[in-house]
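Ticket #4471: structure output looks truncated?

Reporter: J.K.
Steps to reproduce: submitted the chain below (138 residues) through the standard prediction queue, then opened the result file.
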Amino acid sequence: MNRIVISSALTMLLAACAKDEGPLHVPKPVIPGEPVDTAYFNSEVLPILAARCWTCHPPMGGMDLSEGEAYMSLVGVESTNHAPAVRVVPGDPEASVLWNKVSFTEVYGLGMPPDGNVLSADELATIRDWIEQGALNN
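Returned output as attached by the reporter:
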């Protein structure tokens, strides 16, 4: 009897610890004739990277996310750990290592930041919008 109770409790505990898919991004609908809310790298994306990523990705870490260097370290650059994948593929978040890491898709392993302090829905939307809009250096 005790084995059945313990086994059942353990099964329920393991089921409760099922994988969390992380925040779901639902793209904003584009309405013809209405202006698109442009995501800007320098004023919107870079501050997110500086606040949430720079601690683990300083200049000497191989991916320089400092001001003036971050864009050139990300867009069109092959990932060091996931070659031949590219860190940011303009127009294609799903093909971008950065998007897969911050949205915890696990396509390229561990999501970022690794401390479990995931980016907010607004931060994720900003990064995704920026990539979808061509990852411009604006």
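Triage note (M.O.): checked the attachment and the full token line is present. The helical segments are 2-16, 41-52, 70-74, 97-102, 121-132.
Status: closed, working as intended.
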